[in-house]
Amino acid sequence: MINSLTMDDYPLSLTAVVERAEQFYSGRDVVSRRPDGSIARSTLGACARRARRLADALAGLGVGDGDRVATLLWNQAEHLELYFAVPAMGAVVHTLNPRLHADELAFIVQDARDRVIVVDESLLEVFDGFRELHRFEHVIVVSHGGPVPDGMLDYETVIGGSEPMEWPVIDERRAGAMCYTSGTTGRPKGVVYSHRALVLHSLAAALPDALGVSAQDTLLPVVPMFHANAWGLPYAAALLGARLVLPGPNLDPVSVLDLISTEGVTMTAGVPTVWMAMLDALDAEPDRWDLGRLDRLIVGGAAVPRSLLEGYDRHGLTVVQAWGMTETAPLGTVSRLPVDLRESAAEDRYAFRARQGVAMPFVEIRARNEEDGFIEWDDAAMGELEVRGPWVAAGYHNGTGADSFTEDGWFRTGDIVRIDHRGSIRICDRSKDLVKSGGEWISSVDLENHLMAHPAVAEAAVIAVPDPRWGERPLAVLALRDGVTVDPEQLREHLAREFARWQIPERFEFVSTIPRTATGKFKKIALRDQFSA
Ligand code: AMP
């Protein structure tokens, strides 16, 4: 045994991130676009200083250690101030998704026992939908000029009437933030993030082969700050001094492209749906925007179709796919082209980039299925992905969902993957969506991607329907592009280029739009209910 002290047991708490923003990057812009389209300008320093006053005010309202403060806000500077203030004072910032149904929001705020809520004026109507269903002790409104309703507090008045708080020392294992999972199945479950997890996630996210964040960057998170910490971009920006452009509620392609060009955005991030629409706008008017500084688009949350990678390449823009979950804070894997594939055929490069990628440092992966146990990394065997690591959940709030964890403490993702010899994962399905036909697997995600590559198809969702002979068969639900028609036989021919005959759906159902969950994913349960009979 060596008898000496090793290193300082310095706490990895978000306080260090907030203080760094205040000390070193005080002048870096935080640009917010308001609901009316106007631009409000702040800085990392101003947000950090205002966070000290906000924390003091919240403490005055009775918020103590570990208490939950809910936010019903867009991507805007006030949200960043809460991201700073609440964890640094020792409380827990709980971001709410305004796109959820009121009943679901009521369930979530009760389950989390939120004490105070901060609401943007433009979301008061959403708040009205569930405010009677839970007793908040205080409601604080971020006003854009409108009157603050009776019984609620004005955000600016609250900050104005307080003193800057001296941050307490926070144990790195304490909770700093929480977020509920999307709830495609069952009730939403709360994921509680420790300071340590968020600090290490910010560091790792910033690595060059991950998202590659530096002080040279201007980041525009299209991914909402209520969805898995906006993939860690706000804290990464504060840690490294990147400029932040927060787009508010208007995420239509023209609004986003306008902001990217006027603010000189270098990196943006969001789900594929957003970038599909943006690609259409770019294709229609390729010279309208100056995207000269835009270096990369981080796309994740759902599979990135190859057509999206190719489409942006045509405009000289690089899409980087990432995979993650609310339970993984969220970054789990990133798909960066390996050095030895740089010069290879386009076909091979796209095939690699369309995968979900290689695990981030400290994130461990493995996958298994019932028949074989842990699968080989041969890109052939399929199994459910399991992960562990310093920013992977160890359980859910209130002890629910224990069956999502293995006996040895790994998190079961519910994603069915193949893993290649490089360790890059390829999601073939989610366990609940998997189609098992005659004892063989069919990947609904693969079918969807290929259907969406057909020029007539705007959206495709493939579900498993019961079949007396095969157990299950795939059924494709399609929304076609405006003004075009296609018949099932043509689609089968299209698929036959990539799939064995037995893998191709017999049934195609045409709908005007495919229903989505609040976070933009296809509502497969609703589709199953509708089409299973
Ligand atoms: P959420 O917790 O709502 O972010 O959902 C996480 C789930 O979204 C994952 O378990 C995957 O099923 C899916 N997902 C996230 N990123 C990707 C991706 N790049 N490709 C395919 N599916 C993804």
Task: Give me the secondary-structure topology.
Elements: H1 14-24, E1 29-33, E2 39-43, H2 44-60, E3 68-72, H3 77-88, E4 92-95, H4 102-112, E5 116-120, H5 124-130, E6 138-142, E7 153-154, H6 155-160, E8 175-180, E9 190-194, H7 195-206, E10 218-221, H8 233-240, E11 243-246, H9 253-263, E12 267-270, H10 272-284, E13 296-300, H11 306-314, E14 318-324, E15 331-335, H12 346-353, E16 358-359, E17 364-369, E18 373-374, E19 383-388, E20 411-419, E21 425-430, E22 435-437, E23 440-442, H13 444-452, E24 457-467, E25 471-480, H14 488-496, E26 507-511, H15 524-531
Parallel strand pairs: 1-11, 3-4, 3-5, 4-8, 5-6, 6-7, 10-11, 10-12, 12-13, 13-14, 25-26
Antiparallel strand pairs: 1-2, 8-9, 14-15, 15-16, 17-18, 17-19, 19-20, 20-21, 22-23, 24-25
Bound molecules: adenosine monophosphate.
Structural notes for this entry:
With about 525 residues, this protein is an alpha/beta fold. Among the domains are: about 15-20 and about 45-205, ANL, N-terminal domain (Rossmann fold, 3-Layer(aba) Sandwich), CATH 3.40.50; about 435-533, GMP Synthetase, Chain A, domain 3 (2-Layer Sandwich). It is about 30% helix and about 25% strand. The protein is built from 15 helices and 26 strands. The strands form 5 sheets. Strands 2-1-11-10-12-13-14-15-16 form a 9-stranded mixed beta sheet, sandwiched between helices. Strand 1 and strand 2 form a beta hairpin. Helix 1 (about 15-25) crosses helix 8 (about 235-240). It is globular. The termini are far apart. The structure holds adenosine monophosphate (AMP). Adenosine monophosphate binds near residues 301 and 325.
